[in-house]
Amino acid sequence: MTTVDGQIDRRWDQLHTWGPYGLLGISVVLAFASADPHAPAAEWYAAWSLTGAALALQLCWHVLRLRRPGGGRTPSRTGTAYYVVRWALAFALTWIAPFFAFYAASGYMDADETIPGNRWQRLGLFASAVTVAGAQAGGLPLRSTVQWILFVPLVVANSGLQMVVAHLTEQETRRSRERTATITELERTNTALQQALDENAALHAQLVVQAREAGVADERRRLAAEIHDTIAQGLAGIIAQLQVVINTPDPEQAEDHVGRALALARQSLGEARRSVHNLAPVALEHDGLPEALQKTVAEWGERTGIRAEFTVTGTAEQPHGEVAATLLRIVQEALSNAARHARASRVGVTLSYLGDFPGGEVILDIRDDGVGFDPLALPARSRAGGFGLDGMRARAERIAGSLTVESEPGLGTALSARVPLVRHE
């Protein structure tokens, strides 16, 4: 229930509580102000006695309403008895003085809250209309034909008007109950939706943690494989070359094998540096993701002589470290592929922020105007290198993302990585 609805209900409750007192007071003032001072004493005694009885009835009902559940708003037998006794007192007082019809009109106000059943409520309203119409026709009892002629249409008009008001009040009450039920259902739905969103956010965070753990394990396996395939093999080659140097008496042959050993050592050092760089990207130590990508793209362009551009769209913010590292590695791998295979003259990298946490995304697009290829005809990646698309796709999938590739021979290549927007902790 809204604040406005609560205020309206309080005002209606005040009207039903104090309205009969006010109407009785108005009736007393007008009736006794217009009374005939020469009227019989018995009539005066009867008027005062009935007025006192009406006041006592109102006080008793006031106390009962305060004690009853719901403030006496629920129709009951007690409420019906109160309504009947009040009508009888009002009818008797109106018989004595027509101005007591104001008190009789209080029956219009609370028939729906005192009398159970629509049929009995309409009967109560009709009884009150009879009393009021009698007063409007010139007072009870009706002594002339003119009064009877006036009385009938007045009864019809009063009762008809009250029936219409009662019907509209009933409809408004029904709509109010339906509106209250709808608001309650909406609140319950909103609560359930908020709980679902909270659970989704928790599951999302749990998924990222699990993906991070899986990524760590995958990185360990990848690094072990790279060490075995590159550094370990390089060291074995260096040892073999040095063994030849030790065992050969020919200086020229020894110098040749020393040169080969040095070349293998440099190559192994480069591989070691590359593996360490891939394990913990130094570019993200002091810069955010947009700045790191900007520097990476610019340095790659200077090193290769290929025109490279970097663009950021949306509201940039620093994502989770695992997300940032994944996107940086994908860019590095994609640029490496472009330099080795694409023969491109221009490369564009776009970082786009879409939406807000927990439903937002970060989209990384890498496009080149190179020779392109047929994605369905790619050979399996070997230890010697290859396109590395499977590796980039695996990186994206570790953090609940995805990687799509669009390329045709002669029309360049476009890579798009979509990952969740998980903020930096």
What is the strand and helix layout of this fold?
Elements: H1 3-33, H2 41-67, H3 77-96, H4 101-104, H5 107-114, H6 118-136, H7 145-247, H8 251-279, H9 289-304, E1 307-313, H10 321-342, E2 346-354, E3 361-368, H11 389-398, E4 402-407, E5 413-420
Parallel strand pairs: 1-2
Antiparallel strand pairs: 2-3, 3-5, 4-5
Helix pairs in contact: 1-2, 2-3, 3-5, 3-6, 5-6, 6-7, 7-8, 9-10, 10-11
The backbone outline, from C-alpha atoms, is rod-shaped
What is the residue-averaged pLDDT?
82
Largest sheet, described in full? 5 strands, mixed
User: Approximately how much beta-strand content do the residues carry?
Assistant: 5-15%
Q: How many E-type strands?
A: 5
Specify the helix fraction band.
55-70%
Q: Which strand order do you get reading across the main beta sheet?
A: 1-2-3-5-4
Based on CA atoms alone, the radius of gyration comes out at: 47 Å
Protein architecture, described:
By secondary structure, this protein is of the alpha+beta class. 68% of the residues lie in helices and 9% in strands. It is built from eleven helices and five strands. The chain has helices at residues 3-33, 41-67, 77-96, 101-104, 107-114, 118-136, 145-247, 251-279, 289-304, 321-342, 389-398, and strands at residues 307-313, 346-354, 361-368, 402-407, 413-420. A five-stranded mixed sheet has the order 1-2-3-5-4, covered by helices on one side. The longest helix has 103 residues, at 145-247. The two termini are 41 Å apart.
